[in-house]
TrEMBL record:
Phylogenetic placement of the source organism: Bacteria, Bacillati, Actinomycetota, Actinomycetes, Pseudonocardiales
Biased composition (Low complexity): 310-321
Domain ABC transporter: 6-242
UniProt cross-references to Gene3D superfamilies, sorted A to Z: P-loop containing nucleotide triphosphate hydrolases
InterPro entries in the record: AAA+_ATPase, ABC_transporter-like_ATP-bd, ABC_transporter-like_CS, P-loop_NTPase
Disordered as annotated region, ranges: 241-279, 310-352
Endpoints of the signal sequence: none
Keywords of the record: ATP-binding, Nucleotide-binding, Transport
Biased composition (Basic and acidic residues): 243-265
Pfam families: ABC_tran
CDD domains on file: ABC_Org_Solvent_Resistant
GO molecular function, one term: ATP binding
Name this polypeptide is given: ABC transporter ATP-binding protein
Length: 352
C-alpha cells in the first residue's frame, strides 16, 4: 500500500440555506500526514464525509487517480471508496461482534478472500495496533483507547491508500493520546498512506502532521507545511493554539468584531504563539517514513512562497537541511516553480 495525492478544488457544501463552507481548495500530498483544525461547528467532519463521497458537495471537485469523486458514477465511486480507510470518532464498532469479527468485516463484505487469508490479515493489523491477543473481546469489555485502536485496525485491513481520522483523540486522556499519536506516525511509516486527521488537540497538531489546515468563517483559511500555521501571526491562530477566550473565536464560531476588540483591549498584551515543538519521529525498529524525503524536497521548492517566519522555522528544522546536490533553501529561488492555487503551500484564504 502507498499514498495517493488528493486534489480538492473549489469545494462548497450547504445543508438547505445553511452554508457550511465554500471554495475549499487544497492538495493532500501523497503519503504525508495532514491535520485539519478549526473551532467546533466549522464542518471538519462534513469535509471528511465529502471526501469519501458520503455527502455530495454543491460545487467543486475531488480528484483521486484522475477521477472526480463529485461527478463520477455510483459504480466508480464505490470502487474509489475502497481506497479509503476511516477511523470514526468512537471507533464505530459493532457491539455484538468481538474485535476479530469487527476488523474482519470489511474483508468479508468487499473481498472473496478465504477465512484463512482473512485471519492472517486481521492478526497482522491487530499486531500493528498493539491488540494481538484481544481478538475475542467485545467492544464493551475494552477501554476507549483500545476501541480506537480496533477501529484503526479495521480501517487498515483493505490496505487503503488514504486514511481519514475523525477526532481520534476525542475521549482519551493525554497519555493515551500521546500513545495514539506515536502509533499514527509509526503506521504512516509502515504503510506510506496519505493521512488526514481532524482534531481539536493542540499537542497533536503541533507534533504529528507534515501539513496543517484551518477551517474558519466558512472557508479553508490556511493550508500548508506545519510551520506555516504554527508561526502565523493571525489572532485567530494565536487564540486557537493558546486556547484563550480573548480573540475573534466565540462560542458560536466567531464573535462580533467590536466585542473581540473590547476583550483584547481589556486583556492587554497577550503572549504570542507557543514554541514550535519538534515533529514526532518513528519508534525504534520502525522503518523511516518515505514521506520525509518527499516533503523535504517539496518544502524547499516552495520556500519562496512562505512567510519569513515559516521559512525561518523550516531552516531551523532538520527537514530543510541541504543535501548533496540540493539547493540551499535560503538561496535565490527564481528558478523554482511557484506553489499553485490551492496547492500544498500557498494559503487559499487569509484569516480575517
Amino acid at each position: 500500500m502507498s499514498g495517493v495525492e488528493v486534489k480538492v478544488e473549489g469545494l462548497s457544501k450547504s445543508f438547505g440555506r445553511a452554508n457550511i463552507w465554500s471554495d475549499v481548495s487544497l492538495t493532500l500530498p501523497p503519503g504525508e500526514v495532514s491535520v485539519l483544525l478549526g473551532p467546533s461547528g466549522t464542518g471538519k467532519s462534513v469535509f471528511l464525509k465529502s471526501l469519501i463521497g458520503l455527502l455530495k458537495p454543491e460545487k467543486g471537485s475531488i480528484v483521486i487517480h484522475d477521477t472526480d469523486l463529485v461527478r463520477c458514477n455510483e459504480n466508480r465511486l464505490y470502487e474509489l471508496r475502497k481506497l479509503f480507510g476511516v477511523l470514526f470518532q468512537d471507533g464505530a464498532l459493532f457491539g455484538s461482534m468481538n474485535l476479530f469479527d469487527n476488523i474482519a468485516f470489511p474483508l468479508r463484505e468487499h473481498t472473496k478472500k478465504s477465512e484463512a487469508q482473512i485471519k492472517d490479515i486481521v492478526m497482522e493489523k491487530m499486531d500493528m495496533v498493539g491488540l494481538k491477543g484481544d481478538e475475542s473481546k467485545l467492544p464493551g469489555e475494552i477501554s476507549g483507547g483500545m476501541r480506537k485502536r480496533a477501529g484503526l485496525a479495521r480501517a487498515l485491513v483493505l490496505d487503503p491508500e488514504i486514511i481519514l481520522f475523525d477526532e481520534p483523540d476525542s475521549g482519551l486522556d493525554p497519555v493515551r493520546t500521546a500513545y495514539l499519536n506515536q502509533l499514527i506516525i509509526d503506521l504512516n511509516a509502515q504503510t506510506d498512506s496519505t493521512f488526514l486527521i481532524v482534531t481539536h488537540d493542540i499537542n497533536t497538531a503541533q507534533t504529528v502532521p507534515d501539513n496543517i489546515g484551518m477551517l474558519y468563517r466558512k472557508h479553508l483559511a490556511m493550508f500548508g507545511p506545519r510551520e506555516l500555521l504554527l508561526t502565523s501571526d493571525d489572532p485567530v491562530v494565536s487564540q486557537f493554539l493558546n486556547g484563550r477566550r480573548e480573540g475573534p473565536i466565540g462560542m458560536s464560531e466567531e464573535k462580533d468584531s467590536a466585542q473581540a476588540e473590547r476583550e483584547m483591549a481589556e486583556a492587554g498584551e497577550l503572549d504570542g504563539l507557543p514554541p514550535i515543538k519538534p515533529q514526532l519521529e518513528v519508534s525504534a525498529g520502525v522503518p523511516e517514513r518515505k514521506a520525509v524525503a518527499r516533503r523535504q524536497q517539496r518544502v524547499r521548492d516552495m520556500m519562496h512562497t512562505l512567510s519569513p517566519a515559516a521559512q525561518a522555522a523550516i531552516r531551523a528544522s532538520h527537514i530543510a537541511q541541504p543535501q548533496a546536490g540540493v539547493a540551499d533553501p535560503g538561496a535565490p529561488t527564481e528558478q523554482l516553480p511557484r506553489a499553485g492555487h490551492g496547492g500544498y503551500g500557498e494559503p487559499r484564504h487569509r484569516l480575517r
